[in-house]
């Protein structure tokens, strides 16, 4: 994803993402990340076995970066750590739910107009049938 796409008001969904992830042969599960207090969904990420082990050991969200093919400790560079409350497992054991507490106001790697990390990666919504997006968290 380019910075341009991250700030665009045009809908441009990546329907090939899972195909690209599968092509790497990486064994990963999707991880829904939810704020434990508000219930807000913060992001969707991926974890392999190592990332899950590290999450449980460190007490903070650790993911497998599918774009960089490496372990990603959320907050290691930004300071926006996600402290682990608990890990849920879905019925088919093919996805995880990390319930977390944000250590700062931000959870997304993108920045709003004020320069602060956005509180969630879901900062836009579809506002029309013609592919327009509106900002929820500018």
Helix content: 10-25%
Q: Whole-Å distance between the termini?
A: 18 Å
The computed structural class is alpha+beta
Query: Which architecture of the domain at 15-105 does the CATH hierarchy give at level 2?
Result: Roll
Count of helix runs: 3
Q: What can be said about the biggest beta sheet?
A: 4 strands, mixed
Low-pLDDT ranges: none
Q: What is the count of β-strands? A: 8
Q: What's the pLDDT, averaged over the residues?
A: 91
SSE topology sketch:
Blueprint: H1 3-7, H2 17-23, E1 29-35, E2 41-47, H3 49-58, E3 62-65, E4 70-73, E5 82-89, E6 96-102, E7 124-126, E8 133-135
Parallel strand pairs: 1-6
Antiparallel strand pairs: 1-2, 3-4, 5-6, 7-8
Give an overview of the whole structure.
The protein starts with a helix and ends with a strand. The chain has a four-stranded mixed sheet, covered by helices on one side. It has helices spanning 3-7, 17-23, 49-58; strands spanning 29-35, 41-47, 62-65, 70-73, 82-89, 96-102, 124-126, 133-135. β5 and β6 (96-102) form a beta hairpin. It is globular. The chain is of the alpha+beta class and 138 residues long.
Short descriptors:
single chain, 138 residues, alpha+beta, Ubiquitin-like (UB roll), four-stranded mixed β-sheet, two-stranded antiparallel ribbon, globular
